[in-house]
Design brief:
The chain is α+β, with helices and mostly antiparallel strands. Helix content is 28%, strand content 16%.
Length: 669
C-alpha cells in the first residue's frame, strides 16, 4: 500500500514556472526551515447535482487547518449609501480571521477574546488590500473562514489546490488584491444563482489580480496557489477553479457544471479536464488559452482541447494524498464502476463526476465527511500505526530526530476526509421545494467523526453563541461547541475501538432526533411563512429560537459524553455494572498481534514444578473470545483438583528420597 505525506507539504513541482512581477525565486526543496509545521492542504469539498440529492443540490466543506479560526458568523442583509466602498480584507486563517464592525456579531471587534497585548495587536479591523464600489444592497449569508450560504440558497464549498502560477498581495509587494475567501463572500453578498456567483468571482480575480493563500514563494506557494470552489443553487451544481496568471496581476479560471444526477469531489487537486468551448456546461476566463500558449503549456495547433488539470497544475510527490479521497467518495456513490484505489499522478482513472447509484441525503454526506477508509485496503483504523485500539488519527509530521525534508517526505500515511484538525465543516442544501427563508445548512466544528451537525437557517438573527465564540488561544471552554467535540474526540482516541461505539451512538441518536425535529418544525413554520408572505419578524424569531434550542441540546449531550467516557473507559479497563452492588472492571489489554509487535513475548515466564501461575489482579472478562467469569472459575477449580492429585502422587513417589528444593526449569512452555 502506498503511503502519503503526513505533514501535507509534499509538493515536488514538475515545472518551476513562477509568477512574474514580484520576488519569486524557487526555494530549494531541502530547505527544511521553510516547511516546519506547515500544512499546505486544508480542505475537502463534495458537490451533488439537483437529481442526486434527496431535496436538491448539496455541497460540503471540511475546513481542515491546525490553527484556524473555527467560528461561524451571520452577515446580515444591508442597504448601503451611494458611494460606499467595500474593503477587501487580506487573507488570514488564524483567529481572528476577520475583524469588521460591518459583518455581524461574530466578527465585530467587541466579540474579540484575548489579553491586552493580543487585542492591541489585532486592532479594530483586519488588514485591507484594496476597496471596490459597494452595491446598493447586499444579501444575508453565513460564513466561516470562507463563505457558506446566502439567503437565496446559493452555497459554496472550498478546497485549496496546487497550481503553476501564484500571485502576491499588494500588501506584500505584489500586484494582486483579492483571494478566494473574499471572492466567495462577495459572490454570496451579491448573487442569486450559481452562474452569477461564478462569473462574479471570475471577474473579480481577473480584474483585481488573484493571490495565493501562501505567497512566500517556492513549493509551498505552488501548493497553495490554486483554489477550487463548489457552487450550488436550487437548480444547478458547479465546480470552479482559479489561479493567478503569469503576470501576477490577473487570474485564470474555469468552471464546469455537473450533470443533474452526478456527484463530484475536490480534494486539494483540480478535477476539471478538457474545456469544451462550445458547451453551456463550461465557463472560463477570456485569457485562459493565451496564458497556456505563451507559457508553452498547451497549443491550439495541437488540435487537442485544453486539459485544465495538467495544463495549470504541477504533479506532487504523493498524489494519492488527493486522489484517494476522490476515489473513496466516487466508489461509494457509484460502486458498480469498480474504480481502482490506485491511479496516476493526475487521477486519470477517475472522471470529473459520476452518476450516483442512490439518492443522497445530508446524512450520507456527513458520513463521507467522517470517513477513514474503513473496510478498505487503506483503512486507517487498522495496522500498527493505529495502535492497539485502532485510532485512525495520524498526526502531522515534524522534523523530529533531525530528519531531513527528504527523509520525512519519503514516507507518510493515508490522508482521510475526516481529520482531527478540522476547524469546521458543513453540508449545505439548496432546496427548490421550500422558500428561501428556509435556506439550511448542517454545521459542525472539529473532527466530523467526533461531532454532531446542527441545523442552522440563514434567516436566523444570529448563530448560537456556542459557535461564535472561542479560539485555540483562549483555551478550553465548555460553553464553546468546538471544545466539547475536541475533548470527546481526544479522549475517545485513547481507546478508539471501544469508546467510539458510545460516541457514534450519541452522534446517531442526536442526528436522528434533529432530523425528526427539523422536519416537524418546518411543517409548522411553513404555514407561518405562507401567512406572512416571507421571513417576517415572527418567522425570524422562531428560526433563531429553534437553532438556539437545538444547539443547546447538542452541547448538553456532548458535555455529558466526556465524563461518561472518562468513567467508563480508563486505565486500560472498561467499567461495567456501575448501577449494581458490585461493579465489574473489564480489562481491555492488547490484541495478540500488538503484543508480538511490542516484544511482550520476549519476557519469558518460568514454568515447572513448584512454580505458581499467578496474576496479581485476576481477569474478570478478557475479550469477546475469552471464557466467561463463571466458566473460568469452574476451570480453575478443576485444574486445582488435578494439580492436587498429581502433587500427592509426586510426594508418594519421592517419599523414600531426600527432600530438597528443585531448581525451576527454564523451559518455555
Amino acid at each position: 500500500m502506498k503511503l502519503i505525506a503526513g505533514i501535507l507539504v509534499a509538493f515536488v513541482v514538475t515545472f518551476a514556472v513562477g509568477k512574474a512581477g514580484s520576488p519569486n525565486l524557487r526555494q530549494s526543496f531541502p530547505e527544511a526551515s521553510s516547511l516546519v509545521g506547515y500544512e499546505n492542504d486544508k480542505c475537502t469539498t463534495i458537490v451533488v447535482g439537483p437529481k442526486a440529492g434527496i431535496e436538491g443540490p448539496m455541497t460540503t466543506h471540511t475546513a481542515d487547518c491546525a490553527d484556524c479560526d473555527f467560528r461561524m458568523g451571520k452577515v446580515p442583509a444591508r442597504d448601503w449609501p451611494a458611494g460606499t466602498q467595500r474593503p477587501l480584507y487580506q487573507y488570514k486563517d488564524q483567529y481572528p480571521v476577520i475583524i469588521s464592525a460591518n459583518r455581524g456579531n461574530t466578527w465585530d471587534p467587541e466579540n474579540l477574546q484575548g489579553n491586552v497585548e493580543q487585542l492591541s495587536s489585532w486592532g479594530k479591523e483586519s488588514a485591507i488590500t484594496a476597496y471596490i464600489p459597494q452595491v446598493a444592497h447586499t444579501y444575508a449569508l453565513l460564513e466561516g473562514g470562507y463563505a457558506i450560504m446566502n439567503e437565496h440558497q446559493v452555497a459554496i464549498g472550498e478546497s485549496t489546490c496546487a497550481a503553476r502560477f501564484w500571485g502576491v498581495p499588494v500588501t506584500a509587494g505584489g500586484l494582486a488584491k483579492i483571494e478566494v475567501a473574499e471572492m466567495s463572500k462577495i459572490a454570496l453578498e451579491r448573487s442569486t444563482t450559481a452562474r452569477q456567483a461564478i462569473q462574479m468571482m471570475g471577474d473579480l480575480a481577473t480584474e483585481l489580480g488573484f493571490y495565493a493563500a501562501d505567497w512566500s514563494g517556492g513549493d509551498r506557494s505552488s501548493g497553495e496557489a490554486g483554489e477550487a470552489l463548489t457552487v450550488i443553487d436550487k437548480t444547478e451544481a458547479w465546480v470552479f477553479h482559479v489561479l493567478g496568471d503569469d503576470t501576477g496581476a490577473s487570474a485564470v479560471w474555469a468552471a464546469q457544471r455537473l450533470e443533474p444526477d452526478h456527484v463530484a469531489v475536490v480534494a486539494n487537486s483540480f478535477i476539471i479536464r478538457n474545456i469544451d468551448e462550445h458547451s453551456e456546461n463550461f465557463m472560463y476566463s477570456a485569457n485562459i488559452f493565451a496564458v497556456a500558449e505563451r507559457n508553452k503549456l498547451w497549443s491550439r495547433a495541437s488540435g487537442k482541447p485544453l486539459d485544465f488539470l495538467p495544463t495549470f497544475a504541477p504533479t506532487r510527490s504523493h498524489p494519492e494524498y488527493s486522489t484517494r479521497r476522490v476515489w473513496r467518495v466516487l466508489s461509494q456513490v457509484a460502486p458498480s464502476l469498480n474504480l481502482p484505489g490506485e491511479t496516476d499522478a493526475y487521477g486519470n482513472d477517475y472522471p470529473f463526476s459520476v452518476k450516483t447509484e442512490r439518492v443522497l441525503t445530508p446524512a450520507d454526506l456527513i458520513a463521507f465527511n467522517s470517513d477513514h477508509y474503513e473496510g478498505t485496503p487503506y483503512d486507517l483504523t487498522q495496522g500498527l500505526a493505529a495502535g492497539p485500539y485502532g485510532d485512525p488519527n495520524r498526526f502531522d509530521g515534524s522534523f523530529t530526530n533531525n530528519m531531513t525534508v527528504v527523509e520525512l517526505l519519503s514516507g507518510g500515511y493515508e490522508r482521510a476526509i475526516s481529520m482531527f484538525r478540522t476547524s469546521y465543516s458543513f453540508v449545505a442544501q439548496a432546496r427548490p421545494a421550500v422558500p428561501d427563508s428556509l435556506a439550511l445548512i448542517w454545521f459542525s466544528q472539529y473532527n466530523p467523526a467526533s461531532s454532531s451537525y446542527a441545523p442552522f437557517y440563514v434567516a436566523m438573527e444570529k448563530p448560537p453563541a456556542a459557535y461564535t465564540r472561542g479560539s485555540l488561544g483562549q483555551g478550553y471552554d465548555s460553553s464553546v461547541a468546538y471544545w466539547n467535540f475536541l475533548a470527546v474526540g481526544n479522549y475517545a482516541g485513547r481507546f478508539y475501538r471501544y469508546a467510539m461505539v458510545d460516541v457514534r451512538a450519541v452522534i446517531s441518536r442526536v442526528h436522528t432526533q434533529l432530523v425528526q425535529d427539523t422536519a416537524a418544525f418546518e411543517k409548522t413554520i411553513l404555514k407561518q411563512i405562507a401567512a406572512s408572505k416571507g421571513a417576517s419578524v415572527e418567522v425570524v424569531k422562531a428560526l433563531t429560537e429553534y437553532t438556539s434550542v437545538k444547539s443547546e441540546y447538542i452541547q448538553t449531550e456532548w458535555r455529558a459524553l466526556l465524563p461518561h467516557l472518562i468513567t467508563k473507559f480508563h486505565d486500560g479497563m472498561i467499567a461495567t455494572a456501575l448501577d449494581q452492588p458490585s461493579i465489574v472492571m473489564r480489562k481491555l489489554f492488547y490484541p495478540k498481534w500488538w503484543l508480538e509487535a511490542t516484544g511482550y513475548f520476549l519476557h519469558k515466564g518460568n514454568f515447572g514444578p513448584g512454580v505458581i501461575l499467578f496474576e496479581p489482579t485476576p481477569e474478570t472478562v478478557t475479550s469477546s473470545s475469552a471464557l466467561s467469569y463463571t466458566a473460568t472459575m469452574v476451570l480453575v477449580a478443576v485444574c486445582s483438583s488435578l494439580v492436587t492429585v498429581l502433587g500427592v502422587m509426586y510426594i508418594l513417589h519421592r517419599q523414600n528420597k531426600r527432600h530438597e528444593y528443585a531448581p525451576i526449569p527454564s523451559a518455555n512452555v
